[in-house]
Amino acid sequence: MSILEEDFFKLANEQYAELVNSLSAEDAQAWEHGEVESYITLFGTELMRRLFQSHLDLRYAQEEYQKGVLGSDGEARPHRRKKTQRQLETLFGEVMVTRVGYSTQTPEVSALYPQDGKLNLATDKYSDGIRRRVAEEASKVSFAETSETIAKTTGGEIGKRQLARSFAEETSAGSLVNVKRSR
């Protein structure tokens, strides 16, 4: 890993060092296993969120500008927009995806974000991991209980309305069938 790449993972490395320091501390040696597990779950989830964010930031830094960007509609997108951002709600919490956008001055022609395609991002803000958990939980309990479970067991959050919409999309795409078969 180059020095530049290490800089992108600085916050994740700091979180890891904090975890190790806390778990190595004298008072932590008196914790019961449940306390250790809870601590690692809470602060480990934040470590994973920071790793994810660092990875996305590194990808943006390495993203090369493109020329002659054409949409599937045949329209050219000659205007480059740097540092456009969108939220991504993951199992570890929310991260920001920074990427380059390409647009035209015609208002009805939407901008294109090649990095979104490379990451296979959905049009809403929910990750595949959140979608999978929603499909698994919503097939067993109510949307309200599913929303609570997602919030309690991951770093992510999803409201009941968004959950219902996501569940409908997952089941219509056949993803729920795949989830049930993989159990």
Brief write-up:
This protein has about 180 residues and is an alpha+beta fold.
Describe this structure in words.
- 21% of the residues are buried.
- The two termini are 37 Å apart.
- A two-stranded antiparallel ribbon has the order 1-2.
- 54% of the residues lie in helices and 13% in strands.
- It is an alpha+beta fold and 183 residues long.
- It has helices spanning 3-8, 10-24, 33-62, 114-119, 128-138, 143-153, 160-172, 175-181; strands spanning 79-90, 93-103.
One letter per element, helices H and strands E, the order comes to HHHEEHHHHH
What is the number of helical segments per DSSP (H or I, 4+ residues)?
8
Number of extended strands: 2
**Structural class, from secondary structure content?**
alpha+beta
Strand content: 5-15%
Q: Biggest sheet: strands, sense, closure?
A: 2 strands, antiparallel
Radius of gyration: 20 Å
What is the terminal separation in angstroms?
37 Å
The neighbouring-strand order within the major sheet is: 1-2
Helix content: 40-55%
Number of domains: 3
What spatial form do the alpha-carbon principal axes imply? flat
Low-confidence runs of at least 5 consecutive residues:
175-183
Average pLDDT over all residues: 86
Give the topology:
Layout: H1 3-8, H2 10-24, H3 33-62, E1 79-90, E2 93-103, H4 114-119, H5 128-138, H6 143-153, H7 160-172, H8 175-181
Antiparallel strand pairs: 1-2
Helix pairs in contact: 2-3, 5-6, 5-7, 6-7
